[in-house]
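ok so dumb question maybe but i'm new to this and my supervisor (M.) told me to 'just get the structure for DUF3784 domain-containing protein' and walked off. so i did the thing. is this what she meant?? sequence i used:
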Amino acid sequence: MDILIIIVGLFMIGIGFLVKSSPSLIAGYNTMPEDKKKNVDIVGLSTYMRNGLIIIGLSIVVGYYLFKWIGLTVIAESIIGIVILPGVAIVVISSQRFDKNKDKTKRAKLTYSFLGLVAVCVIGLFIYGYSPSKVDISSDRIKFSGIYGFEMNVSDIDHVELSEDLPEIKMRTNGFSSGAVRKGFFKLDKFGKSRLLIHSNRLPYLIITKNNSEKIIVNFKSETETEKLFGYITALIDNK
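this is what came out, is it supposed to look like this??
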C-alpha cells in the first residue's frame, strides 16, 4: 500500500470533515463582517466543500490503484497533481454561489490566492522531486541530499556494482515517482524493499548492497556521473 497516496487522500477527506464541523476555517468567510456573513448560506457552503474534498481524497486513492491496475503507471504516479489542482479549483470557484453578497471582490481575491497557493505547493513538490540529488563524500560517510536524501557509513557497505538491469518495480511504498524519476522506498522483484534515487532511464544503475542486505539503487541523467560515483565508492571500500 502506497503510504503517500493514503496520507494525501486521508488528509483531503479530513479537511473536508473539518470545514463542515468548523465553517469559520473556510478562507474568506472567517474574515467577512457579520452583516455579510448573514448573506452566506454557510450550511450549504460547508456541506458542499466537505463533499467536494471527500470526493477529491477518494479520487486520489481510487484513481491511483485503478490506473496502476490497468497499466497506466505514469498517470497513477501523477494522480495527486492531476486530481488536486483541478479538483480544488472546481470546488472553490463553484462554491461562490453560496455567497449572496453583491460585492464579491475581496472574496474572489482570497479564492484565487488560495488556488494560487495550492498550485505553488503542488508545482513546488514536483520541482523538488525532479531536482537532482547531490552527493557529498567524505572518508567514512556518503550523503545524498534532496527529496528522500539520506546518509550512510562507508563501513555499512558490503558490495557495490554497476548493472545494466533493474529488477521490476512492484510497488512504491513511500516515495516520489513521476515518469522515470523514482526516489524513496520501493518494493522490487528479487530485491524486496529497496531505496531508490533514480533520476532517468539512462544506464547503468549503481547498486549498493549494505551489510544488512538492504539495496540502494542510484543513477543520474549522465552515465558518466553514475560511473564516477561508482569509482569513488569503490575506492572508499578498498581503503576501509
